[in-house]
Amino acid sequence: MEEGLRQLQSQWPYTSGRFHNGLVGLYNDGLTCCVNALLQTFYLTPEFTSTLQQWDQMQNEFDGRNIPYCLCRLFDQMRTSKTGKVSAESFLHCLRLNHVKAYAQNDAAELFLTIFNLLLDQLQTPHIVEEMKRLFEIKVEQFVKCQCDEVTVRDNKFWSLPVPVKETQDGEDFTLEDGLEMFFSSQPVRRNNRCSNHVCKMKSPALQDGAEVIGKVRRRKEDRMWVGFKLISVPEILNLHLNRFRAPSNRGGFMRKIYSLVTFPETLNLNQFPISERSQKYRNPQESWQYQLYAVLVHIGSASFGHYIVCVKSFKDSMWYGLNDSNVFRVNWADITQTFGGPHSKSRETAYMLLYRRVKTEDTIPPSGAQADGL
Q1: Are 355 and 293 within 8 A, CB to CB?
Q2: What is the mean pLDDT of residues 95-106?
Q3: Rounded CA separation 299/107 (Å)
Q4: Inter-axis angle of helices 33-43 and 46-56, nearest 10
Q5: Which residue blocks in the chain are alpha helix, DSSP H?
Q6: How far apart are CA 323 and CA 42, in angstroms?
């Protein structure tokens, strides 16, 4: 039994040190760059893989339709690779069996939610499901205020927080913190989605998911209802996706991409944003709400056609590495800043998803790696 406990606590992947600090590339099997980039973020998040390892060691039987099983087998392939490159074909086939279009242009934020929700549904082991939820779950208090001052409140949760992106002019600065401030601040709700308020009997907006109600909205006199959010609890892994893709304003239009500059820090403190009174009352004063950036999923191209790569900061040596399908190479923070966007962004590379790891109170934040080869 003691031997079994030691196995559960041991690090599962990353034992192959001969390929760029243990990093392994994934072949592009045809429009699979989005899946590959997401798989790398899962694989290179030790908190995720160690939790998944517990499920894997429960001697689960082969099931080609099961997402966690196929993830485990793929991670085994990556861990034992002799060439530094493997194919994710079996996992891609598993996605197809779950009615997910794997060999197609995908939106990384949507695909992340699809894969993660399938993972939770198919784990079927309550304590591991709860552990997975704890890693990514962002709990917020969502409220809607009517002009009569009636406030309706409900709890909501996100696996990935949608961050508004402002369309800026050349030279205008817009930061990740600005986007988060927009998300948490009160915003008017679109008038075409309303329900009756039992107090003032007026038509008020229905509670909506944060991704629907947050955006670039002008305050107008006729907008009398407002929605806002407050943080209740934060996860170990903070997943933020920048809303760079804008739906067409008219029927028959096309989705477009926002290339505006969005700077983001290596260290992010969530204490600066609105916090629910419940959280303030029961929260441990020593609990850290500070985060360190460790992965940037980058979109290259337009809204209609593009390519994904991912940059990951290794937990072993604190150096940044780029993973472009099967290619693995060193990068540095200067290269990461090239993904901020703006008129001079290299090859139209723009950061789309940002993964931050929660800093433990006893931890110190390691410095960025030294200068290295570029993107």
Answers
A1: yes
A2: 94
A3: 10
A4: 80
A5: 2-9, 33-43, 46-56, 67-79, 89-97, 108-123, 126-136, 176-184, 210-213, 277-282, 333-337
A6: 13
Token reading at 370? 């030294």
Nearest to 56 by CA among 118, 130, 111, 4: 4
Distance CA 128, CA 134 (A): 10
pLDDT digits (tens, 9 = 90+) for 183-230: 998 777 654 444 444 445 444 444 334 434 333 333 344 445 777 899
The two beta strands, 237-242 and 349-358, are: antiparallel
Sheet of 226-233, strand order: 151-158, 138-145, 226-233, 187-188
pLDDT in tens, 245-296: 987 767 767 788 999 999 999 999 999 999 998 887 767 766 789 999 999 9
- Interacting residues of 244 by C-beta distance below 8 A, sequence separation 6+: 165, 257, 258, 259, 299, 341, 350, 352
What's the CA gap between 264 and 365, in Å, rounded?
A: 16
Q: For the chain, what is the total number of helices (H) and then of strands (E)?
A: 11, 18
What is the Cα–Cα distance from 296 to 262, expressed in whole angstroms? Answer: 13
> What would you measure as the largest C-alpha separation in the chain, in angstroms?
69
Tokens of 372: 């290295």
For the chain, the distance separating the N- and C-terminal CA atoms, rounded to the nearest angstrom, is: 47
Q: Tell me the chain's radius of gyration from C-alpha atoms.
A: 22
**Model-level pTM?**
0.83
**What was the pLDDT predicted at 339?**
95
